[in-house]
Amino acid sequence: MNRVVLMGRLTRDPEIRYSNGENALAIARFTLAVDRRFGRRDGEQTADFITCKAFGKSAEFAERFLRQGIKVAASGRIETGSYTNRDGQKVYTTEVVLDEIEFAESKSANDAARGGMGGGYQSAPAPAPSPMGAAGDGFMNIPDGIDEELPFN
Known about the structure:
This protein is mostly beta strands. It has helices at residues 56-65, 107-113; strands spanning 4-10, 15-18, 26-35, 47-55, 71-84, 90-103. The protein has a domain at 4-104: CATH 2.40.50.140. Helix content is 11%, strand content 38%.
């Protein structure tokens, strides 16, 4: 089984291209910085920089919503290949072809992680939470007598 699950931040805005032909297909390429589980001995965090590709609807999602610094969770498969460069040397490639991409943080958390850079990805400041329940736990009290109307017990 060839299945990869990643969570990381985009190192730059995705590069978007469209295939030629009658039914043009969107192709997105970007790199995710994925923190390693354990840091270096001096305590500094280390990361792997993983090249990712997405096609079709996933690529269109990337084009519309993904920007440098945004944290995403993504899954797909590893694809390897090779080519001969201009100097005649064989170059091996490894990238992840994604079929699912999701936001891994709220817009406000992403903005804060990006140093407050908006760039078309701005959100209004989140209102301070107000306690709704009697205990101030953030849950709303259920009115008396509604038990008969609930679709579950």
